[in-house]
Amino acid sequence: MSKNFQNLVMQTTKPLGLSFLLALSLNVAAAQTGSTAQLPLQPYKATYTAYKWGDDVGEANIELSELGNQQYSLIYTSKVSKFFLSDKRSEHSIFTIDDNTVVPSEYYYNRSGTGPDKELKVTFSHQGDGKISVENGDTFEWNGEFDNQIYRIDLAKRLAQGETSLDYNFVNYRGELRHYGVQVVDEEVLSLPYGKIETVKVKLIRESKTRETFAWFAPSLNYTLVRLQQFKEGDEQGDIKLRSFEMQ
Q1: Residue 227 exposure: Cα atoms within 13 Å on the Cβ side
Q2: What's the confidence (pLDDT) of residue 16?
Q3: What are the angstrom distances between the C-alpha of 98 and each of 72, 105, 111?
């Protein structure tokens, strides 16, 4: 097998959006905490079909559960395969809602399949000045950063308020501090495996100019993510589309 062909195939096993943003993240600043609008956190389970170049290569799931005492669990899983290569990932966030603000507590990441396996645990301590501790890695001061996925909880609230330009600082699935911007670019009616649905389309603004990420959120589903698509140097890396949605 040629090296170019291997690289092309390996793209099917990269995060399909919710682990890079989704992947989508920020500084929980005064503009955020000062907001009074609230979006109810209704537990749900969403299932997505994962595509590569239009081919069905697997599925992804997102599940939001209430643990009690304003504590919640957000779990993302994906399993994709292309040819003889495979990739299985999971992200698990535990967080609380305090004064209408999303406060991270623990974040776990696991990846297995073709290539090296990866595990990560991040804990957020809110005592004193606050710390972010990456197991077997760095320790950072906590200045309101989210983990790699719970920014979407905050994003849903702010999209519902009509905000169109946002900024996020977060810890990614590699245990690194990162900053992204999120810009609303359009409103679209999508035809998904789930059916036709009205959405708000956003673009992820990052330092890298070689990658482009777009995400679609549905107002009728409490601004749940319904599609995520990523490109690298113009080539589609992955596309996930909502297949089913169930309130818990």
Answers
A1: 23
A2: 35
A3: 12, 12, 31
Name the CA dihedral angle for 35, 130, 137, 173, rounded to a multiple of 10 degrees. -10
Tens digits of per-residue pLDDT, 96-133?
998 889 999 999 999 999 999 999 999 999 887 899 99
Calculate ∠ Cα 99-148-233, nearest 5°.
135
Q: What is the pTM of this model?
A: 0.83
Dist. CA 32–CA 47, nearest whole Å = 29
C-alpha count within 13 angstroms, C-beta hemisphere, residue 70:
9
Burial of 128 per CB tally in 10 Å (0-12, 13-18, 19+): exposed
Of residues 64, 62, 63, 117, the one with CA closest to residue 88: 117
* Backbone torsions φ then ψ of 236, nearest 5 degrees: -65, 125
Going from the C-alpha of 92 to that of each of 64, 73, 153, 165, 214, the distances in angstroms are: 10, 7, 14, 27, 22
The radius of gyration of the chain's CA atoms, rounded to the nearest angstrom, is 17
Residues counted in the chain: 248
